[in-house]
Structure formats: C-alpha cells, structure tokens
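Structure, all three chains, one model.
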Amino acid sequence: MSILFPESVLSNRQRVIRELLQGHDCATKLKFLLQNPIGSYGSTLSAEELLSNVERSFTKTIYVVTSSDTEVFDENGSHVGANSCNDLRSEDSTKSKKRSLTTTIKDRRGSYKRRRTAQTWTKISETIDDNHAWRKYGQKEILNSKFPRSYFRCSRKYDQGCQAMKQVQRIEEKPYMYHTTYIGFHTCKDTLEAPQMVTYSDTLDSFLVNSNSDSKVPNEKDTPFCSQIDPIIKQEYPKEDTSNDLKDNLDPTLWSDLKDLELYKPAILLSKVQSDNADTVYSCTDDSQSLRLDFGVFPSHFSTDFHFDENHLL
DNA sequence: AAGATTTGACCGTC
DNA sequence: GACGGTCAAATCTT
C-alpha cells in the first residue's frame, strides 16, 4: 500500500524556511566556533557536527523544494512513485521489445533505463566515506579522464528498495580528492538508528518530527552525506515558542527575507548568509529553477565542496 | 558459503 | 558511432 505525500505548497514553504533557519543557525554557530575556537558560542557541538547539520539542512531543503505532489512512499518510507526509478527491469522489459527479440533472459546485461529524473548533486572531498553502505556495481574508464569512474548503489537496494546511487571519480588535479555525484535520496532505513529531528517541529508543521518508519519523508540517515545529529541539539531550541527564539537570534533583515521567501527561490536567502571571508563555498544549484545556494563560512581545512545539481529535475 | 568487487558485454543517449 | 551507465558472470574476500 502506498501513501501519497500530503504536504501542500504552503507547508512545504514552512519546511523550507525551517530547514534553512536551522542551517543558518548551525552555520552561525560554526562561524563563531571557528572565529573563537576557545570561547565558542555556547554550542556544545563540534565543528564537524555543526557542518553536518548544515549539510542536512541543505539536503532537506532541497528535498522539499524538489519533491512534487506525486511523490509516493510506501509504509516503510521507501520511495516508490513519481520520479522513482523503481523496478527498472520490469519497465525496461516493456520498453525494449527489440532486445527481447534478440536476446535471452540470461543475456540482459546492460538493460536499464537511465535515470534522467533522479535528483543529483555532487560533493568533493578527501574521502568517499559518507556513513552509508554502498555496493560497487561498475567501473568505467572515462574519456579524457586519468582515473576511472566507479559506480555505487545503496547496499539496501534489493532488501529495502533504496534507489540511492553515487558515482565516484578521483580528481586529476588533486588525486587525493574525490568527486562524488549522488543520485537520488536514500529511502532505506539504515542499521544505525536515525537521529530524531525535533528542533523546530512543534511550532511549525510536524513533518520531520520523527524519522521513524511512520515518517513519509526520508529520515536523517537517508540523506547521503548526513551524519548523526548530536541529541544535544534538542536542548538548543526548546519546544516552547521555538519560532520566536529563532527570530530573536536572527538578523532582522534575514528574518524579513525569510518570511517573504518564495518557494523555489532560495537563492535570495542564502546570498545573505554567504560570508566574504569564506575559504570554502558550499553551493546548491538548480539550473532549471535558478536555484543557487551558497554557503561560505567554512575555512579551508574543511576541504569539502558540496555542489547540488538539479539539472535533470523538473 | 555469502557477500563484495571486478570486468566485459550490452544498451540508451547524444 | 562514441560514450557513459548498467548488468551479471566470474572472481575475490571474509
């Protein structure tokens, strides 16, 4: 049995705002932490944890923005509808009559449907590890590339139907760096308990309150590069009147912008967040929707460049 | 033995 | 037709 995503555009907007507020807050704390490594900002989270929270906020925001009303998830949270590329083989079998006439079942290598509608984004880092279990299913020499490209899919593809995939390729100029392209979100439930997302949920819509099996959105671990959230984060935004606290902690101009934030135009928001002193810029880009999210508060030792690419979406 | 990786073949897109 | 993405048998690892 499948469950339709019930969110309206309005609630999606609230979700976007909430996630961006979270990301902004974590980025601000990270900024203070980096500027004042000893004193800190009253945050008990490490820089890495704050960075992970920022990444998570990006991911969720992107997810909300790019999700259509026809996105469908099963009761386990697995994505099974609309843009999903589930059951590629069955779909492909109906599509390629030509091949079925000329090949046997045993000789079906290469039969697939290229997932042009899947959400993709890229990340550049020194490691390919992202706390997810991947299974390599291919490697290919790429034209004009010194290093081959490796193809991975979620190790839970078959037992949970998770459609997340990634492609990893070393960068010629920096062989110690990896350019990772993520394709699709994790819809599997990882063995690690998904962290709970309770920070702003009581004052805004409660879509992300829990990331358990009842949730209709991918849980925290479903996002490809999210790490665990320190439970302490729950204490940072008490359930009572969270929105006001947020408002108080934000630059009034930013808050005003956020209130007027239009769905699908988050570039307005994050251009204000960007720092002139940034050594590393995180960017989320949607060429088709003029979406570009830049985050420039990270020093160079966070040698990770995150780039979201929605070329194939919408 | 089971799971993961390698690798050549196949197929869709450009 | 070239290139890139995927499949699946063979091989390797645990």
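Residues 273 and 295 of chain A are 7 Å apart (CA to CA).
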